[in-house]
UniProtKB/TrEMBL annotation:
Name recorded for this polypeptide: HVO-2833 C-terminal domain-containing protein
Domain HVO-2833 C-terminal: 1-71
Organism: Haloarcula amylolytica JCM 13557
Amino acid sequence: MIDDGSRHRSYCLLLFSRVDTHEADLREQAAKYGLEAEIDALLRYLETHGEVDDDRLPEWDEYQELAVDYEM
């Protein structure tokens, strides 16, 4: 990720939700770059519909609005 802010994480979430990403491959690449915790938080966020305690992630309603804006 370029930046650690909510905006960039929101775009990562949109990308993960849109493309067919194999979780094992994603986790392998995350480990390669030392991003295991970040990827875990993003995947849990999507799986639980925002039930993740992380201030760097948007509220679920905000994420849903962004997804609608991008027609996803």
